[in-house]
Design a protein that fits this description.
Elements lengths: L7 E3 L9 H6 L1 E5 L2 E3 L2 E5 L4 E10 L5 E7 L2 E5 L2
Antiparallel strand pairs: 1-4, 2-3, 2-7, 4-5, 5-6
Length: 78
């Protein structure tokens, strides 16, 4: 396994940025210096994370996402 963390990662299996091996290893996210456990997708180079907007669903039944901009610091938990 490589020790490099993907620049962009998603937990949605339908996304082109989904990486099961990285998710199995456990990826944590620090966003603006605080630990976030509700991140669905992130991009380090563009500086944003996607988080769910409460219990709101879109018309396809998936959670509605909100993009937050700031400093993204991913790391492997194990």
């Amino acid at each position: 396994m490589a020790n490099t963390i993907p620049d962009r990662l998603s937990i949605d299996p339908e996304s082109p940025f989904y990486d099961a091996s990285a998710l199995d290893r456990g990826v944590g996210i620090r966003f603006n210096g605080k630990e976030r456990n509700d991140v669905c997708e992130y991009s380090v180079s563009e500086g944003w994370v996607l988080v769910g907007a409460g219990k709101t669903l879109d018309r396809n039944g998936k959670p509605l996402m909100v993009k937050l901009k700031g400093v993204v610091e991913p790391y492997f938990r194990s």
